[in-house]
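Support request, priority: normal
Reporter: lab tech (M.K.)
Component: structure prediction queue

Hi team, I submitted a job for Fe-S cluster assembly ATPase SufC from Chelatococcus daeguensis yesterday, and the status page still shows it as pending. I've pasted the exact input below so you can check whether something in the sequence is tripping the parser. The sequence length should be 249 residues. Please let me know if I need to resubmit or if it's stuck on your end.
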Amino acid sequence: MLQINNLVVEIEGKRILNGLDLTVKAGEVAAIMGPNGSGKSTLSYVIAGKEEYEVLDGEILVDGENILELEPNERAARGVFLAFQYPLEIPGVSTMTFLKAIMNAQRKAREEAELTTPEFMKRVRAAAEKLHIDQEMLRRGLNVGFSGGEKKRMEILQMALLEPRFCILDETDSGLDIDALKIVAEGVNTLRDPARAFLVITHYQRLLNHIVPDTVHVMANGRIVRSGGKELALELEASGYADYREQAA
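Reply from support: The job had stalled in the queue. We restarted it manually and it finished. Here are the results:
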């Protein structure tokens, strides 16, 4: 599914990723944990195609294709999805208009017929109900006036509607109370599938109590310094990251 080899990235002359290697198999939920400044969010942005970052070396393969050669919209059409840590408010763009536009844009890229309005409405209402998103939220501007939890639920709604093959969750638990966390995690868990993979970026074990990972990777100073099973997250919660900072230095 995802294979990253020797990825070296900098921004404004500062090296962020230092020869990072990572493999995530189809059907797998992989968690990345690490201290602030270790490069976790940078990794998510580079996979998605954010332009500010300069890739100096390495490759990112999705199903064997090096997506570094693709524009962000082309990566999305290939099934790459990024749920942001801080989703933006977009005044003047209605939520429903946005959802229909992104769904039909991806269908067009895959040479599929666009959804009719009744088909679109049926899909949105079914997915929104599962995520406790009421009709009033859907009638508003995209993320405008939403709480942190509502914005995160809207991100997961987009993911549910687009049905991507590789999903990146960049600190989705940030700013969520326990009830919102459970709702978001439930939405993610319903999308777990043998043909879909997840990369879950987080600082804390609490998210991984609800989205149980298959593998956990520790990131420090721009590279993966240790990998293990779900029990590794518990170890990190107890001992912190000091040893890994020294190991990566």
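The CA atoms of residues 81 and 167 lie 5 Å apart. Residues 95-109 form the longest helix (15 residues). Let us know if anything else looks off. Ticket resolved.
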